Amino acid sequence: MQLVTPDFIYGWICHKQDPDKPLWVDVYIADTLLGTYPAQSHRPDVARFLKSQGRHGFELKIPSSINSHEPVAVRVTGHGGDRDLPHSPIWVQLGPQGQRLALPPATSSSTLVYHPPQALTTNPKIALIILNRDGATLLEDLFSSIEIHNSYTNLELIIVDHDSSDESLAVCQRWQNKLPIQVLARDQNYSFSESNNLAAQQTNASLVLFTNNDISFCQDILADLATILEDETVGVVGVKLLDKITDSPHLSPGTQHLGVQFDFYNPFASFSPFEVRDNPDLRDDIHQSWRVPGVTGAMMLCRRQDFLDLGGFDETYFYGYEDIDLCLRYQKQLQKNVICANHLTAQHHRGISRFSRQLPGSFLAKIGNNRQYLERQFGYYLRRRHLADFFDCDRYWTGHPLRVGFAVTEAKFDAAAGDYFTALELGEQLSKQYGWSIYYLSKTQGKSWYDVHQLDVLIVMRQDYDLSQLKNAKPRLIKVAWIRNWFEAWTQTPSIADYDSVWSSSDAGVDYLSQQLSKAVTQLRIATNPERFSDQLLPRDSFQSDYCFTGNFWNVPREIITCLRPEKIPYCFALYGHHWQEFPEFQDYYRGAVSYEQLPQVYRSTKIVIDDANTVTKNWGSVNSRVFDAIAAGALVVTNGKLGNDEVFGGLLPTFDSPESLESVLHTYLSDEPLRQKKVAQLQAQIRDHHTYRHRAQTVFTSLKETMTNRYRISLKIGVPHQDQVQEWGDYHLAQGLKRGFEQLGHSVRIDILPDWQCSQSLGDDVAIVLRGLSDYKPQPHQLNFLWLISHPDQVSLEEYEQYDQVFVASHFYAKQLQSQVQVEVQPLLQCTDASRFYPDSSLDADIPDVLFVGNSRQVYRPIVRDAVAAGLDVAVYGSRWEAFLPSHYVRGTHIANDQLRQYYTAAGVVLNDHWDTMREGGFFSNRLFDAAACGAMIVSDAVVGVEAVFGDAIACYDEPEKLGVLVQDCLRRRDSTASQRLALSQRIRQQHSVAQRVETLLRAIDALNSEKMGLSDGF
C-alpha cells in the first residue's frame, strides 16, 4: 500500500508465481470491511519490474459518506488473506478535517426506507435480458443458479449474443430444455444500450429484468421484485449485490452494491456516482429497501412499457453510465422512485470479462465519451438537486447530511476569543434541528485552518480569514461571512467579494454592508442557549457577587475602565477575564479568567452584569453574547450599547454613559430586588420568544436554503489576459456592474479573467456568462451557458454559437441576421451603463478638457483620435500605450478610475467615441456611448448602424475624417443649448439601458433554462 488520503487508497499487488493472474484486495476501515476490489489499474513501473502486462494497481475512491472524525487505520489485504500488504495500515482522518461537534448520533433517516407491498397480487411475465460475449462459463453459472434458486415460472430468458467465439451458444442450447431461453444472435459486439433496447422491443413481457451474464442467483427473488413494481410510484428496482470471486468460494462475500449515490466534493469533477457498500450513519436503512438515485444495470427491473416510453437506454453511451442515465430519467421525466431492494440478494462477478482481457483502443475511446455526455444530460440537474436535498434532510443524493464548518480562533472551552462559543451554540442547534454535521476549524491549528475538505458550507467568524488559501474545497462550497464586529475592517479585506452570503449581527451593520458591498445581507444576531444559561441553575458560592463584568482587555480602550469605580459603591463586585491584572484599581476585584463552561454559574451567582460594548460593536448596534446569556441565567444587564439596546430590546435595558449614570443604575436595581426581578422577567420573555439559538438556526436554515436552492452561482468570463490589466478593460467594468446587480438580488458572482476560465471553482458554477470579445470559451456541459457578444462578431464562428444554450448580441441588426444562420436562440441585448456610477456629476475638481477621449490605443492609431489631431483639436486622451502615436502633451493620463469617470464625462465639452469597423458595420454600440450619455455628455462618435433608434439625434456622428473638426466645434457651440435634451437622454438611458435592466433580462433567461433543465418534478 503506497498512499492513503482522505479520498483515495493507492497501491499494487501481484502473484509471485503468476504475475498476470487477476488479483483482488480487501479494504478495511477501522476493522470494518469496506469492500473487495480488483487490482486492475495499469502500472507501467510494476510491469517493467515484473515483465508483466502491468494490471496490478488499485486506485480506490473512498465514498464521501464514509468519515471517521478522527484518524483511523486503513488496511488492505490480498483477498481472503490475513496479512496486510506492506506499509498497511495507514492512519488517516476521513471526511472533514476540523473538530467535529460531539453530539449523540442522530436518529436514522427513515424517509429513505421504502416499505414494499406485502405480496404479489398478479402474475406478470418477466423477461430476463442478458447480454453475452464469450461468457460460456458465466452463463453456465447463471443458468444453474436460476434452476436452484428460482421458483417463479412466468418468465423468459433472452440471451443477446455478441458474436461469441466460445461455447456460449452451445451452453444456451443445452439449457433450453430446462429454462425458457431464447437466443438473439448478433454479428458483432454492439453497445449495452442498443442490444438491451432491441431485446426489450422484441419481448411481450410486462416486466424486463436487465441482468448481466456474470450474475448468480442466491435467493428466490423474482416474485418479491415484481411485487415492488405493483406500486405505481416505483419505476426501477435493484437488489443488493455481493462480490463473487471464483478463486475464493469458501470466503464470505463482501457487499458490492446497495444502490448508487453521488459525490460532489471532487475539485476536478462536477460530480461522481459511486456504489454504496457501507454507510455507518445509515446502516439501519441501507440493508432494507430504500430510495436511491440509481441502481446498477447489472440487475435492474422495470416495466417494459415505461422503459419504451422513455426511449430505453440512451444509445449515445457505450458501456458506461447507461444505468445511471436511465434511473435519472425515470425520476426527472416520469417522477418515479428508484428502489434498491436490499432485503433481496444476488451475487456478481464484477467486471470479470473486461478485467481478464485487453480492450481495444477504439473501445476505450468510446467509453471515454460517456462521462462528458452524462454531464451534459444531468450535470446541472444533479448539482442543483443535491443542494436541495440537504434541506429535505433525508441524505438521498449523497448519503450524508449538510456539512458545515466554522472558521474560528480556537475551538476550546477555555479559549479567550468568544467566536468559538457563538459558533458552538449555533452549530449545536443546527445539528439538533436539522441533523447537519458541524465542524470547527481553528486558527491555532495553522495551515489546516484552510483545509475545507468535504465541507458544503464554510461560515467564517474572523475578518483575517483569507479565502485564497482554501485547500481541498468542494467546487460548490458555500462561503459565508458572519460579521459581528470590525464591520469597516471586514469591507477592506481582499476576500470579502468572494463570499456567497454575508450575515450581520445588527440592523446598522446590514445597512452599512449592503451599501458598501452591493450585496444582499441577512441579519443574524448573536443569541443565547437557554438550556446552558438557565435561571434554574443553583448559584455557586465561589462566584457569588452583587454585580460583575465578564470580558477581556485587548489593548483597546473600554468604557468600563473610566466609568467603573467599585470602591464608591457598597456592593460586591467581581471582575472576570484576561489581562485585567494590568490595572491596579481592579486588583481587589479581579478573579481571573473563567472558561465558557463556568459562565452560566457566574451569571447565575450575580444580580447584575455590566455590558461594556467596545468600539467595534457599540457603534454598530451589535449586541454581545454576554447580554443574552446573562439575562437567560437570571441576571439583569446594564449596558453602554444604546443603539443595540434600542434595536434588540426596544430600550428596555438600563443604560449608562458615565461613571455617575453607571453608579445610579447599579444603586437603583441592587437596592430594589423586586424591581430588578421584574425587569429581568420582561427581558427573559423577549429572549425566550426571539433570541435563542433555536431562532437563529431557523434563520440560518432559511438563508442557506435560499442561497443554495433558489439563487445561482454565476461566473462572468472576460478576456482580460492578466490581473494587472483589468482596470484598462471596459469588459471588466461591465462585469463589475453585472456582479453588483446580480449580488444585490442574492446571487453569487465571480469574475474570471482569461487564465481562470477553467478554474476548479467553475465546476460548481450554475451559470457561465461569456462577455465575448476576442477570446473563445469552451462551454462546460454541467452549466447553463450564455454568450453575450459585445464586440468582434467577425471572430465568432457559427459552430461556436451552437455550443451555447442561448446567445445574446449587443446589436439588434446583427442579432436578426445571426438568428437566420443558427439553431440556438439569439436575442438582442445591447450594452448598458451602471446607473449607480454613471449620472450627471459636476463635482470635478480638475482642468476640464474641451475634447475628451478615454480609451487605450489597442496598439493602433485609433481613427477618431487621429482625425481629431489632424483637425487641430486639443484632445485630452486618457489611456495606455499611446506613446507610439501621440505627442506627450495629448496624453493626460493612463487611466481614470471608473468611479470618477462620470465627472469627466459630465464636465468635458465633447466626449469622443469610436468603434471597431466590424462593430460599426454590425450595429454594436460601445459601452462608452451608454456611460457618457448617462452622464449627460455631449458625444461625437463615428457612425454606427442603428444608433438613432437608441440615442435619437443626441449623438453627433461623422463618417468623413475631414468633417470631424467642424462637427466638434459645432457641438461645443451648441453645448449649453442642448443641455435639457442631453439630460432627458441621460434619464432615459439610465432607466432603459442600465445594468439592472440587463440583469433582469439575463435572469429571465436563466430562470427559464433552469426550469427546463430541472424538469417538472419537485419531489426528488
Task: Describe how the helices and strands are arranged.
Layout (H helix, E strand, L loop, with lengths): L2 E2 L3 E5 L11 E6 L2 E7 L2 E2 L1 H7 L4 E7 L10 E7 L11 E3 L6 E2 L25 E7 L3 H14 L5 E8 L5 H8 L5 E6 L5 H11 L4 E6 L2 E3 L4 H7 L5 E10 L11 E3 L2 E4 L8 E4 L7 H4 L2 E3 L7 E5 H6 L12 H13 L2 E12 L3 H4 L5 H8 L1 H23 L10 E6 L10 H16 L2 E6 L14 E4 L17 E6 L3 H5 L9 E4 L2 H11 L3 E3 L23 E4 L8 H5 L9 E4 L22 H6 L3 E4 L3 H4 L6 H8 L3 E4 L2 H8 L9 H12 L2 H18 L2 H18 L2 E5 L12 H15 L3 E5 L14 E6 L11 E6 L8 H4 L4 E4 L2 H8 L6 E3 L22 E4 L8 H8 L4 E4 L12 E3 L7 H7 L2 E4 L3 H6 L4 H8 L4 E4 L4 H5 L3 E4 L5 H11 L4 H14 L2 H20 L6
Parallel strand pairs: 10-11, 10-13, 11-12, 15-21, 22-23, 22-24, 24-25, 25-26, 26-27, 28-29, 28-30, 30-31, 32-33, 32-34, 34-35, 35-36, 36-37, 38-39, 38-41, 39-40, 41-42, 42-43
Antiparallel strand pairs: 1-2, 2-6, 3-4, 3-7, 5-6, 7-8, 9-23, 13-20, 14-21, 15-16, 15-20, 17-18, 19-21
Helix pairs in contact: 2-3, 11-22, 12-22, 23-33
